[in-house]
Design goal:
Layout lengths: L9 E6 L4 H15 L7 E4 L8 E8 L5 H8 L12 E7 L7 E7 L2 H22 L2 H6 L10 E5 L7 E5 L6 H10 L4 E5 L7 H10 L3 E5 L13 H19 L6 E5 L8 E2 L2 E2 H19 L4 E5 L4
Parallel strand pairs: 1-2, 1-3, 3-5, 7-8, 8-9, 9-10, 10-13
Antiparallel strand pairs: 4-5, 4-6, 11-12
Amino acid sequence: MDSRNYGNERWHISFGSYSGPERTAVDMVYGLVQGFVPYVLTAAPVGEALPETVRNRILVGTLKDNPELERLAQEGFFRPQTAPEGYSIKCAPAPEQNDCFLVVIQGSDSAGVLYAAVDFERYAVRDRAAYAGEPVRRKYRPFQAGLPVFERSSAPRIEHRGFWSWGHVIYDYRSYIDHMCACKLNTLILWNDYVPLNASQVVAYAHDHAVKVIFGFSWCWGEKVDPDSPEDLEKWTKSVLDTYEGQYRDLGCDGIYFQAFTETNDTTIGDRSISELVIDWVGAISRRVYERYPDLWIQFGLHAT
């Protein structure tokens, strides 16, 4: 903890973009700080005039959308993170005004900004209170009695991190996605027998929390099919395209997931192995789908003997 009591002066949040995951990040930081200070916290896009009472500032955003962060990085106040979905956090006296405190919450992209906000709360604020011991906890008032000098940078090593789930067992999708965000998970595959009535709301909420949504449906799973039959292949190709275009395309989802020739103890169909057949089947249908939707993210699952 820096010895000077920066909490005597008011805090202000200056943000870059206010949409998608960055809006979620700003709201998260705002709610955190407002919970500790006895006045109405102010927040505004970077570049707007500051209230006269403001001394301590929190800068949220990317280098692209928050010019003050870019300036501070060029001046060496902090080392920006550039890896995808990475972030940099720094809490320290302002370089040009040592009687003021400055918090940097910088992401390489919108997901990184959100993860920076998550870990700012977790490591720079909550952990100090949780592990300082009871006497200190009673005295510790973040944003009123100052903040610890703190610095942290991180970026994920795995690009796609997430869950596969049946949609019907997720009773509160907001809470589910909130927990995914807290764990920095960014991919959610949902299998439903029918398209959920609130599917578009689920997608929108997920996107605001940097989570991509992939909807799952059958490509002949549980159905009798002859994989060597051109007629069956054409039938199921049409079914896949009709299902995607008629039910999922306009929901704003990020991709589709399917299973074929799965949940069976058989190792062959006819005189060919299932593993060989499924490659041909999946490849043929996917090629037709990609002809219309070259950017669609298609995922495939198979569990069988």
